Amino acid sequence: MEIAAFIRYVKWMVNHFRGRIHYYALWNEQDIGYWNPRGNPEEYGRLLKVFGPAVHETDPTAKVIYGGQADPTSDFAKRVLDECKCASQIDVFAYHTYPGYGQNLNPETMDYGAYGTESPSKLRTLVRNYPGIRKDIEFWDDEFNSIPSWTGSDESVQAKYIPRGMIYNLAAGVRTFVWLLTAGVDGNEYDDFGFIHGFRNLPDDFTPRPVYYALQNTNALFSDTKFDPSIGIDSTDIPGLRRQGRSPFLQYGFRNANGKSIVAYWVAAHSIPGGAFAPLTATFKLRNSGIRTPVLIDVVSGEISALHWKTGTTDTLETLPVRDSILAIADASYFDWPVLPEAPSSLRVVASGSGVRLHWELHGGDASQVAVERRVGTGKWESVTTQSVSTESNDAGGERGSVVSYRVRAVNHAGESAYSNVARISP
Q1: What's the CA gap between 95 and 123, in Å, rounded?
Q2: Which of 297, 405, 419, 423 could form an S-S bond across to 375 if both were Cys, CB 3.0 to 4.6 Å?
Q3: pLDDT exceeds 70 at position 291
């Protein structure tokens, strides 16, 4: 009866949010001792067996997510799949990675030691080869972070580890979701996990940590790329110590939607607080990169500097720095993306005579116009006006007795910004 009632609820929710929500996950960390009693794979499998069809039948365009497994334990996943006999119903398989939870372990140890004999790589192999599983199944590491307050860590370590974990996953075809942006104001997570400081009644509350900018740079450089194994780096002079199993030299080539390549490399070392790392350099030979005018990008800081090919070559770079944080090589033309204006903020609306007066704040990005949109009740958003740059506007529209919502965005020659906050009024 409980499962039947739950499935009625699932169908109602999927139908209610049809066209707005496209992914539905069953449970989160269903395999840990947080639950009382502890999560049981067979019981989860029985629920997943009816959950998947309920979602797909209610909305054929929706995707079913195997809820984020807290640890990459193959046995738990196999017992779930054996019980549910619903492998074909799973569109996304999700898991979480916190190598060495509570201490400083570098993200690459998720596949060599942090979980003993288990690993995300081993888990993905099991799932990919399970009978009936979709050939196009996606894998999500949908809860990943490195915590600066953990033993042996600090904010400099976090800023290195987050890009490393994301690019390491990207090369394996895994989408990564960082957790969490900032701690809740209730103090539940205090200031441990945030990329922005939480609420502590201190002057730097809600200000970005270094990792915030490192994440921003990682997304800007790699968000529209895919791993291309034909691109790579050959190097014969990386110190042998760094090639050992616990600190391998990693390099991956990616290609973006425009066909341009970017190469990421780093030493997968255990980073120490304070950011210190032995100065290392190496000579690299790029393969199949198509890079003609090379530049070096520090993914953590965002610094970009020009590089020069070894005399007489178009593929060899000498005396390049090698660090325990990601460095990337790309062509100078890689940065051809449009620079959109920043989103307006602090939108507020007030009644003004028979109409509505709107005020907002503008920021950077060389905006040339501002677009104002309105929604009456739960209807569709409609354009009110696109006007020259200003921080206010008037609207005589709206329906008396209805809640009217407004949003604005800035426009420049490259396109439109994200939307501002939504402001509402009942005329």
Answers
A1: 9
A2: 405
A3: yes
Give the C-alpha separation, 365 to 193, whole Å.
31
Q: Can you spell out the DSSP letters for 256-297?
A: ETTS-EEEEEEE-----TT-----EEEEEEEES---SSEEEE
Boundary (domain end) residue, out of 334, 365, 389? 334
At residue 119 the predicted structure's pLDDT band, cuts being 50, 70 and 90, is: very high
Question: Dihedral of the CA atoms 7, 9, 12, 13 (nearest 10)?
Answer: -110
CATH (domain of 286): 2.60.40
The one-letter code for the residue type at 145 is N
User: Exposed e or buried b for every residue in 370-390, given b needs 16+ CB within 10 A?
Assistant: bbbbbbbeeeeeeebeeeeee
Residues 7 and 123 reside in one and the same domain: yes
**Is 396:337 a contact under the CB 8 Å cutoff?**
no
Q: Are residues 326 and 350 in the same domain?
A: no
Please provide residue 135's backbone torsions phi and psi, each rounded to the nearest 5 degrees: -70, -25
Q: CB 233: neighbour CB atoms within 10 A?
A: 22
Tell me how far apart the alpha carbons of residues 221 and 337 are, in angstroms, rounded to a whole number. Answer: 10
pTM (2 decimals)? 0.85
Same-domain pairing of 130 and 12: yes
262 shares a domain with 191: no
Token digits for 329?
């090589």
> Could you tell me the residue range of the domain that residue 19 belongs to?
2-222
**Are residue 145 and residue 35 in the same domain, yes or no?**
yes
Residue carrying the six token digits 């569709």:
380
Instruction: List Cα–Cα distances, 82 to 24, 37, 87, 88, 378, in angstroms.
Output: 21, 21, 9, 12, 44
Determine, yes or no, domain membership for 339.
Answer: no
> 187 in helix, strand or coil?
coil
What confidence category does residue 170 fall into, taking pLDDT thresholds of 50, 70 and 90? very high
Distances (CA, A) of 328 to 120, 137, 233, 256: 25, 29, 11, 14
Quote the number of domains for the chain. Answer: 3
* Residue 340 resides in a domain: no
Per-residue pLDDT tens digits for 27-72? 999 999 888 889 999 999 999 999 999 999 999 999 999 999 999 9
Last residue of a domain, one of 197, 222, 247: 222
CATH number for the domain harbouring residue 149:
3.20.20.80
- Could you give the CA distance from residue 405 to residue 399 in angstroms, rounded to a whole number? 11
Q: How far apart are CA 323 and CA 345, in angstroms?
A: 38
Instruction: Give the torsion sign (CA, 254, 256, 259, 262).
Output: negative
9 and 133 co-located in one domain: yes
